[in-house]
């Protein structure tokens, strides 16, 4: 690990240490309620769930659904966004669809997805894809629209064909917008999977939260919340590392 990496890691550790310290002080000095436990009992309960394998099972179930829905939504959203941003007739045709459905939240579609697909994996994957696709479409279309005409004219003056202009000028300039849209969509995926598993699921972190609420297992609730936060942080960091590795030259600020 280089010096910058070590500094970053130490900064993250210090940030989490401060977070848990503030949590502890708030629980012990301010709230003083069994409904808001300090960090140590929550960590102990999390260790018990890890030893029993229940926490790993819930995490893997949720992450599997997030990954499947996210990839499906991205596979639909990126080509659709490129088409909307590149062709006016496609934009006129598909913008009503995009603007209509993106204001219907995925949570409102839970009942519909259960009716269509049941409480199996398909309903959760559908909801994740639904909450992902429109964010990516809009970000991708905005990226295509942000390509300056001067770049396109310069490529054309050098003899580039329309295909080469798209592949070598427009698409690379759009990559940062696509990646930003994907990062935002990933956050939406975490929100949606918990809501979906609360309503219709036999496993996952959302189901863990629901069961803990029914039986007033406060530590289990906080274990699930802490796990979601850590997973979200780790997923976003991994996403940024992948961006640097495979698309850093298109977006040097990542």
Please describe what this structure looks like.
This protein has 254 residues and is mostly helical. The protein has one domain (56-247): MetI-like fold (Orthogonal Bundle). Helices cover 83% and strands 0% of the residues. It has 10 helices and no strands. The protein has helices at residues 3-31, 39-52, 54-86, 88-101, 110-117, 121-145, 149-157, 162-199, 205-214, 218-247. The longest helix has 38 residues, at 162-199. The two termini are 19 Å apart. The mean pLDDT is 85.
The third-level CATH topology is MetI-like fold
CATH architecture: Orthogonal Bundle
User: Class in CATH?
Assistant: Mainly Alpha
Q: What overall form do the CA principal axes indicate?
A: globular
Low-confidence stretches: none
CA(first)-CA(last) distance: 19 Å
Radius of gyration: 22 Å
Main sheet attributes: strand count, strand direction, barrel closure: none
The DSSP helix count reads 10
Strand content: under 5%
What structural class do you assign from the helix and strand content?
mainly alpha
* Domains (count): 1
- CATH superfamily annotation: MetI-like
Bin the helical content: over 70%
Brief digest:
By secondary structure, this protein is mainly α. The chain has helices at residues 3-31, 39-52, 54-86, 88-101, 110-117, 121-145, 149-157, 162-199, 205-214, 218-247.
Topology readout:
Blueprint lengths: L2 H29 L7 H14 L1 H33 L1 H14 L8 H8 L3 H25 L3 H9 L4 H38 L5 H10 L3 H30 L7
Highlighted features:
single chain, about 250 residues, mainly alpha, MetI-like fold, 10 helices, about 85% helix, cell membrane, ABC transporter permease, MetI-like_sf
């Amino acid at each position: 690990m280089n010096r910058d990496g070590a500094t970053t890691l130490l900064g993250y550790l210090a940030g989490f240490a401060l977070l848990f310290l503030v949590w502890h002080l708030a629980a012990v000095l301010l709230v003083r309620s069994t409904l808001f436990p300090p960090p140590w009992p929550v960590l102990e309960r999390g260790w018990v769930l890890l030893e029993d394998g229940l926490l790993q099972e819930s995490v893997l179930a949720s992450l599997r659904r997030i990954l499947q829905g996210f990839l499906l939504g991205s596979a639909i959203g990126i080509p659709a966004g490129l088409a909307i941003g590149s062709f006016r007739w496609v934009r006129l045709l598909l913008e009503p669809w995009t603007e209509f459905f993106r204001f219907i939240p995925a949570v409102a579609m839970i009942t519909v997805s259960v009716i269509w697909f049941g409480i199996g994996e398909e309903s959760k994957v559908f909801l994740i894809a639904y909450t992902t696709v429109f964010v990516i479409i809009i970000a991708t279309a905005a990226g295509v629209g942000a390509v300056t005409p001067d770049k396109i004219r310069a490529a054309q003056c050098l003899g580039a064909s329309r295909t080469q202009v798209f592949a070598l000028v427009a698409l690379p300039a759009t990559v940062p917008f696509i990646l930003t849209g994907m990062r935002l969509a990933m956050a939406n995926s975490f929100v949606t999977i918990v809501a979906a598993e609360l309503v219709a699921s036999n496993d996952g972190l959302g189901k863990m939260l629901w069961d803990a609420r029914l039986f007033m297992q406060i530590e289990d609730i906080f274990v699930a919340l802490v796990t979601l936060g850590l997973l979200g942080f780790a997923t976003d960091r991994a996403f940024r590392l992948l961006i640097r590795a495979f698309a850093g030259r298109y977006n040097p600020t990542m």
